[in-house]
Design a protein that fits this description.
Layout lengths: L11 E2 L4 E4 L4 H9 L2 H4 L9 H10 L4 E6 L2 E11 L8 H4 L3 E8 L8 H16 L4 E7 L3 H9 L3 E11 L5 E10 H8 L1
Parallel strand pairs: 5-6
Antiparallel strand pairs: 1-2, 2-3, 3-4, 4-5, 6-8, 7-8
Length: 190
């Protein structure tokens, strides 16, 4: 059985970030930047009030990681373990074999490579910590910053899905899926 994030050793450190599991009180800390229009442009959940944001945040703590720089949260992310698609008789072997990553960066921390550093750490947690065999991440095709991060951490574009995502602007946008296999990750690390 695949371990959960809570079973890993925390905190995890990168060159400039300290990663730890999300906590209920983090909702208030990220609210000032999380609700900004340039952040909400690409996030999947729009909370109109701090209370709604806190409820949403609390509902996803089992999969949530935060990245701190000098004691301040500058990134939030999720590592969600999933079952791989399989034939019915192989479902037990497919259980917990892949993970989906997602991340959001404080606009004040953008342009410094911290998003890439944070996403790379989430990828490492999924493969080395949780032992999944495949990692995926999705984005709106117009979200160039997320696409660049996925490419920089070694993920490949596996699909562009024409007008498959309804954006809160009311427009149907193209979606993209990026992925990386654990064996490819390990081969690149030497």
């Amino acid at each position: 059985m695949t371990p959960g994030l809570h079973e890993l050793d925390w905190p995890v450190r990168t060159d400039r970030l300290e990663l730890r599991l999300g906590r209920p009180e983090d909702a208030a800390a990220i609210w000032p930047w999380y609700r900004r229009p340039e952040v909400q442009e690409w996030t999947t959940t729009l909370s109109p009030t701090l209370e709604a944001h806190q409820a949403w945040w609390s509902s996803r703590l089992a999969t949530t990681v935060v990245g701190l720089r000098e004691g301040r949260i500058v990134a939030t992310g999720a590592v969600t373990v999933q079952d791989a698609w399989s034939q019915a008789d192989m479902a037990a072997q497919a259980r917990g074999q892949q993970a989906e990553l997602g991340w959001v960066l404080d606009p004040e921390a953008q342009g410094q490579g911290l998003g890439t550093e944070f996403a790379a750490a989430l990828l490492r947690l999924a493969i080395e910590g949780l032992g999944v065999r495949r990692v995926e991440a999705e984005c709106f095709a117009e979200n160039l910053a997320s696409r660049r991060v996925m490419e920089k951490i070694g993920m490949r574009c596996e699909g562009v899905f024409i007008e498959e995502s309804l954006h809160r602007s009311g427009r149907w946008l193209d979606g993209m899926t990026f992925a990386l296999l654990a064996r490819e990750y390990r081969a690149r690390r030497g």
